[in-house]
């Protein structure tokens, strides 16, 4: 089969690799019908994620059709159309039973990023992928939900919702700021509304992204390059600061920005993957009683979010701005990496 293979920092190719095979009775093999590219793939390509080594097939998002199931797979069958969760999880170990799928104690590989496709196991930017613990790691797609919608439920929507909105403890009436209006930030904006946020301030360098943010539910926008960006945010909260600041970029400045605009007693939810150390000024923050949360997505809300997509309460398909075929993979990466020029949100490959 063909797959998008990591060749070291800055290097990737769409090339021939062996087909995946069942390695455990709980595995399934899925033909990838649709996949996409994440900000995290760009971090990997820069060399920011050294655990990913040369030869790895990248990608952790996808919709596909099951072509083979192991003997212990009980809920799925060949021909089922499924969402491939970005994280594989057994569903019943002590961590999975508390919803912490990102730290599954199953017998395959390490926890944490070891459980995300395209890191320590081969990913979904390929014609076929092996999915461990298929019963828990795959979700059947109902009729009427498109591939474009389904592929946003592998990672982007659960990440914005779980690590941004849920970890940030958004509640009715809150003023929420989302720093970074890329696909993950937009997912946080779209799902903060589900918890009744009174206003959502989107903060980004890119005016196009801010315009997109409004269409996903942002009530106000602030250009983070403006000298008075902080004053603008504070003015929108009558000087109090926001209840919840969600960081969805992954650079030290934006983490600091989040801590600078949150009100005393408020929550900073860091979603971004940081390749460089951040400054954490506990000497200033402790006296403000600020809660700081962070983490790897668990994708334990995919089924719930899928219901909202199916009932048209969540317009997942709006994130799909560009479409490519599998043999245009390198071009798709280029379009995604130059999002400021191309205005791409998610590039969909099918
Ligand atoms: P993206 O690169 O498409 O979007 C990032 C956005 O941040 C862009 O719109 C960019 O213009 C904006 N930005 C850059 N510098 C800024 C600044 N100084 N101020 C304000 N905005 C700025 O990325 P994405 O796909 O939306 O992902 C966002 C982050 O979430 C990445 O770090 C990604 O790795 C991370 N992520 C985390 C998890 C998790 O499990 N925690 C899962 C998926 C992705
Ligand atoms: Zn588990």
Automatic annotation (TrEMBL):
PROSITE patterns named in the record: ADH_ZINC
Cofactor: Zn(2+)
A Pfam family this chain is assigned to: ADH_N
Top-rank taxon, per record: Bacteria
An annotated Gene Ontology molecular function: zinc ion binding
Gene3D superfamilies recorded: Medium-chain alcohol dehydrogenases, catalytic domain, NAD(P)-binding Rossmann-like Domain
Keyword entries, A-Z: Metal-binding, Oxidoreductase, Zinc
Coiled coil: none
InterPro entries: ADH-like_C, ADH-like_N, ADH_Zn_CS, ER, GroES-like_sf, NAD(P)-bd_dom_sf
Domain Enoyl reductase (ER): 7-349
Stated family: Belongs to the zinc-containing alcohol dehydrogenase family.
Protein name as catalogued: Alcohol dehydrogenase
